[in-house]
Amino acid sequence: MFGWCGTVLRVDLTHGTLEKKELDPGVAKAFLGGRGLNAKTLFDEVGPGVDPLGPENLLCFATGTLTATTMGLSSRLHVSTLSPYSGIMGDGNVGGSMANVMKRAGYDQIVVKGASEAPVYMLIEDEKVSLHDAGDLWGLDTWATTDMLVERHGKGVCVACIGQAGENLVRLASTMVDKYASASRGSGAVWGSKNLKAIVLRGTGRPELFDRAGFLALSKEDKRFMAEDRVQKEVASVYGSHYGITHWYPGYRNFEKELPPEEVPAQIRHDAWKEYEIDRVGCQSCHIKCKNIYKIPKGERKGEVGEGLEYEAVYCLGTNCGVEDPVAIMEMENLCDAYGVDVIAIGNTIALAKDLYNRGIIDDQVTCGLDLSWENAEDQVELVHKTVMREGFGNLIAEGMYSLAKIIGNGAMDYCYHTKGLGRGVYPAGLFTLAHAIATRGADHLRGRSWSCGENSDEDVLKDLMAKGIITDDPVHSMIHGERVTTLADTIGRCKGAVNTWTCALPLIWKGSLFDGLADMLTKATGIPYTGTMVEEVSDRIGAVERAFNARQGITINDDMLPQRPDFKQTPEGAKEREAHMALVRSWYEENGYAPETGLPTAETCRRLGIGDVADTLAGEGPYSTWDGPLLMDLDAYPKGGKRV
């Protein structure tokens, strides 16, 4: 095969078997790679009623179709599973070096099932794959684990692993790559449930391309444009996602409000972080260097270095939790990376807990003595430790935002602003709420491209596309294009960029069309004559499969909800907002060939997209149990403890 490696590595940890399978050419053509391959695999093999932390769940890693080529920004790896955090499709997209090294080793996808009796790690050295005892690694944080495995297997290897959070089945745990890159939605807990501590990779090959010279010419065009793009030069390379702190209205105190630029505290504004920056770095195959390397100047962790402190950490662990101390935010970021925890998920869950505490719904007895006053950064740092160890109140935080509210009861769910278990805040009906509602992994800032439509973006390419009428301000029209762009970025292995731009996510979009440039690149890479229409259908196919997967986990149209604050929800205006929101959702369904009463692709749509088996499965299995978050364990049944970082 051209473009693809042509190999899927199948790992059964229950039986300790490693098997290489040929990648089905038809599946490759229809789903490309990354998110597409993983969605297809999960739908085919993980049905309704599966425990996310049971051996029947799968852990899927897939490289992009254009990963490890000369195309820039192509280092993204997709990690997918049935999420123990949300109970639905749980996929994370991670940078670093793993995607490139995995593909250079010869694998398009790794699928892990079962569970080992004892801790193991996987070693991949090109065609040689083996499992090894990880008893001496179990209990170590991700930084120490990475250092030990690099020392053991030599420089040049990539290490993906979990820390204590994954081992303790914390539902907020992440897959960590190269110490600092995170794939979230609870995938780290799935590693832990399978007793898989790490994957070590070394790859020395490269994928063969159908027209290498032609592909190289296109990738050079793309790189030249990116090198001169105003947003990349003046914003992404200088500030990275810190730009958003004073431009994207971060949440404040569990989304009590959004902070306009003039209300963002001076010490955490985008330019203030330069005081702690000692260098900048980019993922493999990226020259933009959007990530900062910083050094903590004082306090308990004085002198400690961290990498990739993003906007999401500053707002989710900072302003949305009422914390405005940059040192405390850097400390928590480093703890999350070392322990292997998603900063967004733990930040949102702590923000909810703080809200409940300050409203009197929970008290010091529930929090086991922790003071969750908004301004108390010290006890919040302590709560991060306790969450990872599942100690005291941390054992509840470890269950995630939705499950925490469900367990607490007493009106707690009124302040859990979520869509399908994930939170992005409270907005009036429109572009943002539609993007959050239709996102297949729950409310999300990297689905639907709401941040790059109309007034949300200042990039020149978008202005040109709008002037030509390709992109409009209509929310439904914008989301159709936005979903396609973000899905394809996740499928070819492309980065969406530090400041989330069209030019990053979709190569050659600046030539004036949406998908023809990408189709040309795919044609030269694979030899398959892709067209812009075919590329659109790949995205639509993946989205339909993901929504069908979620339906089997109990998701219905009722879960495409509009989060509202309780005082507004009970008013006539609140009811009108919900009606307006659902009108947009149903319109989006109809435009995509979904049944407006269910939100599922119709049988006709499935057959048009070549996935008639998906429609047949849904018709033959239902009705399904109603979604109410993930299946939970007894809180006393979890593994607990470990060495503090």
From TrEMBL:
Keyword Iron in annotation: yes
SUPFAM superfamilies cross-referenced by the UniProt entry: Aldehyde ferredoxin oxidoreductase, C-terminal domains, Aldehyde ferredoxin oxidoreductase, N-terminal domain
Domain Aldehyde ferredoxin oxidoreductase N-terminal, first and last residues per copy: 4-205
Molecular function GO terms recorded: 4 iron, 4 sulfur cluster binding; electron transfer activity; metal ion binding; oxidoreductase activity, acting on the aldehyde or oxo group of donors, iron-sulfur protein as acceptor
Keyword Disulfide bond: no
SMART domains associated with the record: AFOR_N
Annotated keywords: 4Fe-4S, Iron, Iron-sulfur, Metal-binding, Oxidoreductase
Family matches, as Gene3D superfamilies: Aldehyde Ferredoxin Oxidoreductase Protein, subunit A, domain 2 (1.10.569.10), Aldehyde Ferredoxin Oxidoreductase Protein, subunit A, domain 3 (1.10.599.10), Aldehyde ferredoxin oxidoreductase, N-terminal domain (3.60.9.10)
Cofactor(s) demanded: [4Fe-4S] cluster; tungstopterin
Family statement: Belongs to the AOR/FOR family.
Descriptive protein name: Aldehyde:ferredoxin oxidoreductase
